[in-house]
Fold these 2 entries.
Entry 1:
Amino acid sequence: MMISVDEFESYRPLLFSIAYRMLGSASDAEDVIQDSWVRSADAQPSDLRSTKAWLTTVVTRLCLDRLKSARAARELYVGPWLPEPVLTSPEERPDAMLQRDESVTLAFLVLLETLSAEERAVFLLKEVFDYSHDEIAGMLEMTAANARQVLHRARARVAERRPRFTGDPEAKRAMAKRFVAALTANDPAALTGLLAEDVGFWGDGGGKVAASRRPLSGRDAVLNLLLGIMRVAAAQGVLPDISVNVIDANFEPALAFRVRGQLDSIYALEIRDGAIQGIRAIRNPDKLAFIERQLAVA
């Protein structure tokens, strides 16, 4: 029996959640979901026992193919590579596109980039989506023993750098609003009080727009960069045309910067222990298209 449109759509949130975590790109995840629908029509086995398991297998394998081909492109990427942000909400329903989990924060998605494609798949399928080793082995065409070995390696790598996902969402959002106020007021003292001593800054312009070509670390360096950005905006006469809204992206506070109404950048804030620990600024226009569509209907 063919998979119906309604049945396929019922699994779309799960499939998107897997593909987005695997690829770090909402646009690519959407493409993978579309490809999986085509596969469901063209290559569905006649003795299909579990639609969910089969679709998960198809999506995972499509993601593996994309990850392997993307490695070379990532090596040539101009400046830091950051995941594509997605709009989320603290009130999001359990069946919505992304489940609330640390594994969808930008910091964690960046960490997943340190894993091989195979390690990433095994880790996510087991740790986030709770598939058994036998199920994972079938999906990835390996033995259950091999799946356990891959998971062990992945867990060890992730444990070394795993970011802590703590803090009250409302308190974080309030801090984001204070950050906006301090930045737009060009207040160095207020900004200094919000930034952690070892705060990091990563900018992703993809070589298409201006962005920091290397990561910055330390309060003074990040403070100087932020103030410099505002000085340039003032010198170019666009400061009056800039608007900033606090949104929820990847289940953390983020700033949506617009210039003359056009989305210019998303600044995702990593907040822990009452301070901003990291700022990830996505300016690459290709990576803003998906969240721009989300914002248009929010």
Entry 2:
Amino acid sequence: MNPITSPAPLDERARDYPRITAALDFLHENWRDQPDLAAAAKAAGLSPAHFQRVFTRWTGASPKRYVQALTHASARKLLVDGASVLDAALETGLSGPSRLHDVFIAEEAVTPGEAKAGGAGLALRWGCAPTPFGTGVFLIAPRGLSALAFAGADGEDAALADLAARFPGAAFHREDGLARQWAERIFDARAGEAALPLALYGTPWRRQVWRALLRIPPGCTVSYGDIARTVCSQRASRAVGAAVGANPVSWLIPCHRVLAGDGRLTGYHWGLERKRAMLAYEAARR
């Protein structure tokens, strides 16, 4: 079973292609003006309501969400290159830092300042707790879970060092009690299916791939090529593989559900035995 499907059937996307390309051209040329739905719909020659349906069906994202992603990607590059938060906001067509703050929180659950710092000065709490798959190592940011790893034969400290390398300059404080609370929220069936807050630090491309992973239902598997077709093109399978491998939140962002094109288990950061166990655990609960 392949649960990842195209935003619309091929015949519908082929029919919509001319109008979608006109709309994409318009959005890429004018996103700094933060165009509204009516302006984008006019470029496509459709009514706003019809355009909203067609664009979302073809791309898998609303026009507003698409413009927000373009804004975020550009602002993030400006911040990394040294721009101030105010300059990045104004350069990307936003009214000020508060609007840029909203965009960054929506896209990656971090503020523009935190993204610019790359973890420097960020206070992270970490701890270890038992899970169905061995000792879990949890990294918690102020706005949610930033990482979930598993301790291997080389122990908890090695697992933490692996995670800490992703956040140079951050301060780490150990709280095993907090880690146990997160473990219970994640793995205790009585906790229900409520969404858990994640604070992800990564490039726009990686987060796009991680969002695709979240759409794979429990008990199902897909290939790297399936993910690549969802987010870009099948020719991007190698880049998708790198983004999947960089996933910092095991289990919740289910990179264990991605297999090789021939169905083999490959490339799991925390060990193929654990990946096999996770798939069996989910299959038994379908």
